[in-house]
Task: structure prediction
Amino acid sequence: MKGQKMCGILFLRDEKHRINKSTFRKALLAQGFRGPDDNNIVIFPNFNAALGHVRLSVVDVDGGQQPLHSESEKFCIIFNGEIYNFATLAKTYFPEKNITSDTHLIVELYEKFGESAVPMLDGMFAFVIFCNTTGKVFAARDAFGIKPMFIFATGNTLIVSSETISIRKLIETEVCETSYQELRALRRTIPGSTLFRNISELQPGHSWSDKDGIKKWYELGRDETVFSEEKVISILDSSIRAHLMMDDQVEFTSLISGGVDSTFLTLIAKPNSAYTVGLKDSNEFEEVSEFHNYSKVPIQQICVSEREFWDGLEEILKIKDEPISVPNEVLIYKVCCAMPAEVKVVLTGEGADEIFFGYDQIFKTFSKKEANYQEDFILRYRYTKNNDLERFSEYVQELSYGKNGIEFLEDFFLHFHLPGLLRRADSAMMLARKEGRVPFVTKEIIEYMYRRPISERWPRNEPKGTLRQHLRGLGYGFVSDRTKLGFNAKPKHQSVEEHYTEFFECQKRVLTW
Result:
């Protein structure tokens, strides 16, 4: 693959007020943590539109700088992400052209196929394409929300950005109390919303255009082929290798806990070293050391003190100027900060629990419930009991309509829970100047497992049984048979409620708004 990068994008079109280049650049650089290596803007005076891009270089190639024009110069693109079938698409549709990057590929595909180009893309992406002959705009986000995209669209103004902070530098807005209560209780706001009034999230698998407004381009479908555990392993093996299609000089690592998902990922990826993180009295260092003794993969153990945890939280808040949702985002940030600068790519296991029903207790509880389970689920899922969650209740009612308990849970964890996890991972890693990749989150494996019965999710009546059995076959049964802790940021002397309350109280003190 060529032209790998992670970045932040910002688009502004204002039909009423002339764009001030200096103001726009300041807004763009407010998300400079997403791309500290380069930044650039292009302004189209005839349409009073501006495109901006900040870049974290992973591999520098000719033609990689953005905003990027199509070869015809009709379209201009800003793009955040990676396209893993880049080489196949370039060879199939442009054998006569020298397609130098995935950014170049997307804009040429769009010129050739229009919006129908989006479903061709296999990867993580958020991009905006501007037509400089008509002034029309098209924006799209990947199927599962790996890369973020936020929109302000009202009156004569349209802003699209990778971060809300850039939008907030260009408009006046205020915190939505309903959204804040959702963040406090649910670890995220309901899909489509953000913490700020008038700023929305473009949901995963959706696009925005002048012609149609918000439009769904991806509908999760079911693979009807006969289930095979060997097929699952084959798909995941291919996905991990595709996520590592890069020049040999690019160093990568993986985050590893004592659990099944990250162990499976690390064994296939074979990084030169992997990283784990935890507090002094709450970690999986012993379990990870046992993995090292068998695999010989060097494991860097990052121990974060309580003082370092709270200092790290304050660092994040001062950069992003908005609260984060869960404490372990700080641990991900701290472990990525501890990595050498030359390590640019970090593999993580997000998605495995949602795909293989790894949250076994909640799936066991609701798997046999056919109706009237919604209220019980809301009480089980929420962190707090005194927050106003009317929007969330409506969301659950709508999502659960016509579904039994297990069907609802599958859709909920894919459409609500997973995007929240992906947002947290992207945010923490970008703040530490790392590119996160999530090989479990691909259309192929999610569609292969979608609507499979529990017996196939849990072969041998064992949650994530396919992955566990594969590890046993490789001699890692000790991983398969243990209970996972994960990157837990709660000290042993505090309850979950006490720690979570302190976490949000600290954020209130630091944030000025």
About this structure: The CA atoms of residues 54 and 198 lie 24 Å apart.
